[in-house]
Write a structure and sequence with these properties.
The strands form four sheets. This protein has a seven-stranded parallel sheet with strand order 3-2-1-4-5-6-11, sandwiched between helices. Strands 7-10 form a two-stranded parallel ribbon. Strand 1 (2-6), helix 1 (11-22) and strand 2 (26-31) form a beta-alpha-beta unit. The chain has helices at residues 11-22, 55-61, 78-88, 124-138, 165-169, 172-177, 197-207, 228-238, 250-256, 259-269, 278-284, 293-306, 318-338, and strands at residues 2-6, 26-31, 45-49, 67-72, 92-98, 144-149, 151-153, 182-185, 191-192, 194-196, 217-220, 226-227, 245-248. The chain is α/β, with parallel strands linked by helices.
């Protein structure tokens, strides 16, 4: 196959492209050239630098080119989607749009959530991705497939948390290694599924060029459904530490913590986030999750530590101050109850 990635330097696209190159396929990556390219030099790899936001230049660049598969990893708005349709309609055999399970973030209708779940995103990211999906699938002559990853992680990235934002992801393993308290929303029994990028990549590749995948949407998510307690506990075991949770109600965190600390909580982490993968197995022959959370977390943390992405726990004091404020509030409430 001759495969074009719009993007190509991100976590998911790098994993897909690496596997395709290993299989002897031809890969082209179009991006601005500002992010690190983690793909090894390869005779079948071509890099094209450009900016898709310059729509006229972007569309003109591909006017005389044809690809078996185009994978759009950097489409975040309906304007992006409309530009991709203009650029590749009649110029590719299969167009794959990387969407997100955030198109149905918020309280789920069905658990585990299938692809037939109605759109009900509570955040702008999911709403924009849903609008893109609708554009791509509305044209019967455009050979589109929609992929909906959830928490995709692995070497090249960090481990996320349900709270804390990007600033705390680097300190997360170290806090657990040292047995420091970590904030967990609710009582830690919310459900979550993580999928290592090696498995996500296999899912994308499994539908490439499949006529039955055209016009369809597919979840490509983890199948090891964990509570947040188990999620944290396994990471603590991987780093040789102790899981010491401080449970704070989701509504309290959303109202009191700084917005960048709870943005993801309000949009997706507060809700059960587990999904069916039966459809991609039936249509693409996807083999299912092969990398456990324990193995994937160990590999990711090793990469973080080897590449300077793991940060000392002491470099972020906000969590400790928030925990102290919460514990002081609990003492006040306990005193109030004692004198009632």
């Amino acid at each position: 196959m001759n495969v074009l990635f719009l993007g190509g330097t991100g976590l998911i696209s790098t994993a897909i492209a690496r596997k395709l190159l290993q299989r002897g396929e031809r890969v082209t990556c179009f991006n601005r050239g500002r992010s690190e390219n983690r793909l090894p030099a390869h005779p079948n790899l071509t890099i094209i630098n450009g900016d898709r936001s310059d729509r006229a230049a972007f569309e003109a660049l591909f006017a005389d080119k044809h690809y078996d598969v185009v994978v759009d990893m950097i489409c975040f708005s309906p304007d992006d989607a409309a530009s991709s349709i203009r650029a590749f309609k009649g110029r590719c055999g299969h167009f794959i749009f990387c969407s997100t399970v955030c198109v149905y973030s918020g309280p789920p209708v069905t658990i585990p959530t299938p692809e037939s779940e109605p759109y009900h995103s509570v955040g702008g990211y999911g709403k924009n991705k849903a609008a893109c999906e609708q554009l791509f699938l509305s044209d019967p002559d455009f050979p589109a497939t929609v992929m909906r990853p959830s928490h995709s992680y692995g070497e090249g990235g960090t481990l996320i948390r349900p709270v804390g934002g990007w600033g705390s992801f680097g300190t997360f393993p170290e806090r657990l290694r040292k047995g420091l308290p970590v904030i967990v929303p609710g009582d830690g029994t919310g459900l979550w599924a993580s999928c290592h990028v090696d498995d996500v990549a296999e899912g994308f590749i499994s539908v490439m060029g499949k006529p039955a995948a055209l016009g369809e949407c597919f979840n490509i998510t983890g199948e090891e459904n964990l509570t947040w307690n188990d999620y944290h506990r396994i990471v603590a075991e991987v780093v040789g530490g102790t899981y010491n949770p401080v449970y704070i109600p989701t509504s309290v965190l959303s109202d009191l913590a700084k917005p960048d600390w709870t943005g993801g909580l309000r949009e997706i982490f507060a809700w059960p986030s587990i999904f069916t993968t039966d459809k991609i197995k039936a249509v693409g022959g996807y083999p299912g999750q092969s990398v456990s959370w324990r193995e994937g977390a160990a590999r990711t943390i090793a990469w973080m530590e080897a590449n300077g992405k793991a940060q000392p726990a002491e470099s972020d004091t906000y969590e400790g101050r928030l925990i102290a404020a919460w514990q002081a509030a609990l003492q006040t409430l306990n005193a109030f109850d004692a004198h009632d």
